[in-house]
Write a structure and sequence with these properties.
By secondary structure, this protein is mainly β. The chain is about 0% helix and about 50% strand. It contains no helices and eleven strands.
Length: about 110
């Protein structure tokens, strides 16, 4: 079973940037789809961005043009570069990998506030 560990969350002012990282416990080369999800208080978990093994990406409309997902198969890492952050981006962000079923990290808190 793959284990996922997120890092890089924190407190940032509106308009600022953060880079989230997701470290996998084993090679991600063969993982077809990985992604980032987020969950705000009182809300359901929602998809933020996905990336396939071939590099095809998919973004939620709310983050298009501001967030960039990437993966480094050689380092078993996935990233989410978040720019122009808004208050409404505040949430716990989760790393996800799909290998016959969904695997999740423990989450990292992102708070956007002045």
């Amino acid at each position: 079973q793959v284990q996922l560990v997120e890092s890089g969350g924190g407190l940032v002012q509106p308009g600022g940037s953060l880079r989230l990282s997701c470290a996998a416990s084993e090679t991600i080369f063969s993982i077809y789809r990985m992604g980032w999800y987020r969950q705000a208080p009182g809300s359901q978990r929602e998809l933020v961005a996905q990336i396939t093994r071939g590099g095809t990406t998919n973004y939620a409309d709310s983050v298009k043009g501001r967030f960039t997902i990437s993966r480094d198969n050689a380092k078993n890492m996935m990233y989410l570069q978040m720019n122009s952050l808004k208050v409404e981006d505040t949430a716990v962000y989760y790393c996800n990998a799909y290998i016959k079923r969904d695997y999740w990290g423990q989450g990292t808190q992102v708070t956007v506030s002045s």
